[in-house]
């Protein structure tokens, strides 16, 4: 259970990454022109202590004023903030500076200083780490749009979201085109120059794998090495066909490695379910706190789950959910869709994370940089017609198990997201045709279960450089430097400028494959221990409810009230306990009462009712290792039993 709790917490961030990650493309000046552009003013005062970064007393923060538009000095300036983690051994000069970017676009970097310090700890004795908040994010004059202030937007039909993105572009006006990857790359170099640093070790993750090549092309003399984790090439497929191929491959790999599913059956079921939902979408309501959000099981929402945003556990969960849905039980599929939507909304709107991400800057970059199958010079109606013609012209075989229209609703970048963005004649690729990247040591890492930035794209990203090492990390999803072996490979590369591409072969563990959820109490596996069959069935329902509660806990902290798998409500209490009101994880049993979850166990008192369980009250204690005890009365008889789940 505790493992599933951690997995659900990771899911929230994964879906945020799915929505926020980006691919950087702008039409800019050449590298030589960038070198001659107006540079930043000196740092605003001496570097000083960083505020709001917790226990990082050695970190130093500063800022520079940079031209808002380097082609038009009259446009004014904007502030770019940065943080430096200086090397610990001050008895010797620094052996180099790592410039780290976490992705996005829209993500600030300074807010991650503590996490980055822990990640690069093995190198901090002799190396510095530099984090820069890209213009328009975090501490660098963050952008915002009124169109994105309503959290309900992310539960609206796709067309409403597209309209809100267009409204944000109109609100930003002409300045919106100035928050592109070329401008950010030049800002980074202004920070480098202000700090007096000669060369940088570039480390980019997700969108950072697009931004760092832009920097390298524009400022090649200031690059020592490049690490790209979860990489895309500058020229990527806006229709996501490589991502779909990666999802099909990941399904096969998980089934082969676990031997717990048949990928041919799983892909067949997903194809049948996609066709059914295309014909007959299923509306449902998400209850979260005092809000009720409309949602649908549709081909697009199924495609989003199959895409996963780079979150491998879904490849172990979706086969059973699809099979159940085809059999008429959509509860698990609804739960997966609900979790994805609430997780994304939580990360985007939680005050604790909002300061580290700018949705307005994200779309300002995407809509300026990304390829699209329409022209901004045309009216919106003409753009839509051009887009639909291009979509119909695609080979549907490349989109199996979905239709082209269904797959392009999966939630990845490009497609029609920016179709209502204001006309921008400067939009386009950040690298001019024929641009070359410097011949420096480069390491590109891809997870073999990542459909967000798949291995095919990682290999293409490596080919952008004259000489690069590509390494595929087994059983990992998006940004595989989050894995122990991937991170160690990257850190060793920064030090030695060499890497063994096969160093991580055989590492990692594939995600577990879930079985189909029980519909009735009799379908739950009975726990081990003494007691009658009816008593053990009651304990099984309690255990399944505890597991369901643990899956809800990360989101309960934000929303306070959420539903059970098949009905009822969990309500978070101020004392850390959770109230259960008629929770149903199976159709023929419901639990009410109070549970107090901790890191190691759940304790509480519950009332059981329903045709599938004996009626009664129990005081329960269940550890995250699955060992429990239940004391109380069932069907009028006293019980005091120990049991073990699984």
Gyration radius, in Å = 26 Å
Coarse structural class: alpha+beta
Q: Quote the average pLDDT.
A: 91
* Count of separate DSSP helical elements: 18
Amino- and carboxy-terminal Cα gap: 11 Å
Main sheet properties: 9 strands, mixed
Record field, number of beta strands: 20
Explain briefly what this protein structure is.
The chain has helices at residues 2-20, 31-35, 113-119, 158-172, 181-195, 208-218, 241-258, 263-279, 299-307, 313-326, 331-349, 351-354, 359-369, 380-392, 404-407, 455-463, 484-496, 533-559, and strands spanning 48-49, 60-67, 77-85, 97-101, 128-132, 200-205, 223-229, 282-288, 291-297, 442-447, 469-473, 528-529, 561-563, 569-572, 578-586, 589-597, 601-609, 616-623, 627-634, 637-644. With 646 residues, it is an alpha+beta fold. The protein has a nine-stranded mixed sheet, with helices on both faces. A nine-stranded antiparallel sheet has the order 12-20-19-18-17-16-15-14-13. It has a two-stranded antiparallel ribbon with strand order 8-9.
Describe this structure in words.
There is one protein chain. With 646 residues, the chain is an alpha+beta fold. Helices cover 36% and strands 20% of the residues. It has 18 helices and 20 strands. It has helices at residues 2-20, 31-35, 113-119, 158-172, 181-195, 208-218, 241-258, 263-279, 299-307, 313-326, 331-349, 351-354, 359-369, 380-392, 404-407, 455-463, 484-496, 533-559, and strands at 48-49, 60-67, 77-85, 97-101, 128-132, 200-205, 223-229, 282-288, 291-297, 442-447, 469-473, 528-529, 561-563, 569-572, 578-586, 589-597, 601-609, 616-623, 627-634, 637-644. A 9-stranded mixed beta sheet has the order 1-2-3-5-4-6-7-10-11, with helices on both faces. Strand 10 (442-447), helix 16 (455-463) and strand 11 form a beta-alpha-beta unit. Helix 8 (263-279) packs antiparallel against helix 9. It is globular and about 80 Å long. The termini are close together.
